[in-house]
Amino acid sequence: MNLKDEKVLDPLRKAEQLEASRFLMEGLQGLVPELKEAIILRDLEGMAYLDIAEMLGIPEGTVKSRINRARLELAKLLTRRRSQLGMQA
Questions:
Q1: Half-sphere exposure of 23 (CA within 13 A, CB side)
Q2: Entry pTM
Q3: Hey, what domains does the chain have and what are their CATH numbers?
Q4: Which residues does 47 contact at the CB level (< 8 Å), separation at least 6?
Q5: Least confident among 15-29, 37-51, 65-79
Q6: What per-residue string of b and e applies to 70-85 under the rule 16 or more CB within 10 Å gives b?
């Protein structure tokens, strides 16, 4: 019988997750506000496109476009930052 609780992260794994979260949040800060807002609401908060559109008062297509642009820009920012820090992908 395994007495280790599988839901409890070992300290190293927890530290890695905290570092990854910090890295992502720093990347998000590099986005323009309207892109950052859309991607946070969708990818971090899990809101539906229609709900985001209603909340922001913009068409659903605009929400989808902003999220797509945000994801592309965030990927570029994180790749650039990873390279600057000498991190591997």
A1: 18
A2: 0.75
A3: 30-83 (1.10.10.10)
A4: 41, 55
A5: 15-29
A6: bbebbeebbeeeeeee
